[in-house]
Amino acid sequence: MKIIIILAAALLYLNQANSQITKGHWLIGGSASFSSLKSSSTSTAQFNQTDIQISPSIGYFFKDKFAGGLRPSLFYGSNTIANSSTVIGIGPFIRYYFLNPEHIFNLFAEGSYSYGNNSGNGQLSSRSNTFSISGGPVIYFNNSVGLEFTLAYSTLKAVGFTGNNNQLRFGIGFQFHLEKEK
For residue range 95-117, what is the model confidence (pLDDT) as tens digits? Predict the structure, then answer.
């Protein structure tokens, strides 16, 4: 019975929440994602791969539902063939929210670019360019805090090397919407 009362109170509270996705607000937050791969193919080398990415962000709503900003990122990957690698990057992003601010949830789409420095065990340092598109739902707890679930596709191109690395990632993060002082 207590759980039903708590859930009902939470739904009433969430029903009153709306986001601040209007011109003049700041967007501060970030996300984290994790992926794990275990290859068991007989036609290629067998290996295990683990990737972790952390991406804080700061942005500004230049127009209602449209924000742009800057995002540093840290990517760490490790596998049983080539040891580990780290990519530290920074670049701009743009984001658009599809629903009106009155909703307790919203949907967003985002495009981003990152210029990074790659380093790893036994590897020479190299530079990279990463382009990403992402999107997903965001659930607002109140006027300022939203929880995001993200699906992203990115392509990384190392400078001076042929080919690229494409990746599909799932992530979770928080965004804080702050009003600019007048």
Answer: 999 998 888 899 999 999 999 99
